[in-house]
Design goal:
Blueprint (H helix, E strand, L loop, with lengths): L2 H15 L7 H10 L13 H14 L10 H19 L3 H16 L9 E4 L4 E5 L2 E4 L2 E4 L16 H9 L1
Antiparallel strand pairs: 1-2, 3-4
Helix pairs in contact: 4-5
Length: about 170
């Protein structure tokens, strides 16, 4: 055996161990969503390490959007962190925590917490600062939602003939 051949064989084996594959559909979707956030265009990801790095970066940046741009799953995640912070700051009992969690989750799922004016959300720190419509009265939390009810149209305007008939009766 020749030592040169042994060294060459080990180098060839190492180069074969690096897997190169096509990008999964989910990764392409993530790249497309975050393409507007970076100026360099598409990133070539051919190894598992590069893909993992890209996914970690995406996990960090996904919450750096305005509140109304987050999807419901991300909103629920941020609401849970807010509830945990409120529990520590206000020393809430278990019943109050359950009531607050139920109230906020139901409101989020019924699209009552979609407005940027209702929730002050810090995009840089990815946290909810305050929820303006959330009020605490005694030991209970309530949401003060101003539902604007649309008035139904009264109907068509009356013609001159209808007015004339009505005035004679």
């Amino acid at each position: 055996m020749d030592l040169k051949n042994v060294l060459n064989e080990s180098e060839q084996e190492e180069s074969k161990s690096i897997r190169k594959h096509k990008k999964p559909v989910q990764l392409r979707d993530i790249e497309n969503r975050s393409a507007s956030n970076r100026k360099g265009g598409l990133i070539e990801c051919e190894t598992d390490e590069q893909i993992k790095d890209l996914l970690e970066k995406e996990k960090e940046d996904i919450y750096k959007q305005s509140w109304n741009k987050l999807d419901n799953g991300m909103k629920i995640n941020r609401l849970k962190l807010y509830i945990d912070r409120e529990t520590i700051e206000n020393e809430l009992s278990d019943e109050e925590v359950i009531q607050l969690k139920r109230l906020l989750m139901n409101a989020c799922q019924s699209n009552k917490l979609n407005k940027n004016t209702d929730i002050i959300y810090d995009k840089e720190q990815c946290t909810i600062k305050t929820i303006k419509i959330l009020k605490r009265k005694e030991s209970r939390y309530i949401l003060e939602i101003n539902d604007v009810k649309k008035q139904k149209p009264t109907g068509k305007s009356k013609s001159n003939i209808e007015r004339l008939i009505k005035s004679r009766n």
